[in-house]
């Protein structure tokens, strides 16, 4: 773990220094570095070099690893459930005649695919535990939590609890469909969706939530349109026994991507 952290810090420093050296104009895009480089120094409300590097460390991890985890989980779970895979392909493939038509804007109404993504986040939340919160001194579930006690929510346990979810260990995207959808299943109507907050909750929730959903829709739709995702022998138990820290220590996921026929 220490070696991995050192590698991450070195990569962040190299990428950050390279981008800062380009100045405010950079590559012509008004990104995070453009904003900070435009301010020049902390006297104008900008960040110090150390603050830029520390925030870049978080941006690189939060903007890549968590999204990659959800994409991997969705591909894996769809591969294990061929009927669900068939349904989502029937939604995605007839809608587009070329991959160029698949954009962030044109994927917003892929309702069943979005439900598949939500169900993947429930069964395999990229952040295993929620960020730390300090108790104000109150009762939770009949237990008094003293003031200033550090508390976490274990999302993986909450999302697999039969007290919150009907058939919690089954991959059933229908639970996230609106009532007017033809595949809506009323047996999931009593699911406690208020317990589902994979991006945390409140004013300190994930600032990249909307970007993450846009990336997930775009990448997943393009993968499903372009390829047949075929699980390979030995991949069936990919999730079993996986170690979790703040994030998951994922082993390789072996799948074959075969060109789809259009």
UniProtKB/TrEMBL annotation:
GO MF, any single term: iron ion binding
Cofactor: heme
Presence of the UniProt keyword Heme in the record: yes
Keywords per UniProt: Heme, Iron, Metal-binding
Tree of life domain: Eukaryota
Amino acids binding heme: 206
A Pfam family the protein falls into: p450
Protein family according to the UniProt entry: Belongs to the cytochrome P450 family.
The protein's name in its UniProt record: Uncharacterized protein
Organism: Phaeosphaeria nodorum (strain SN15 / ATCC MYA-4574 / FGSC 10173) (Glume blotch fungus)
Taxonomic lineage of the native organism: Eukaryota, Fungi, Dikarya, Ascomycota, Pezizomycotina
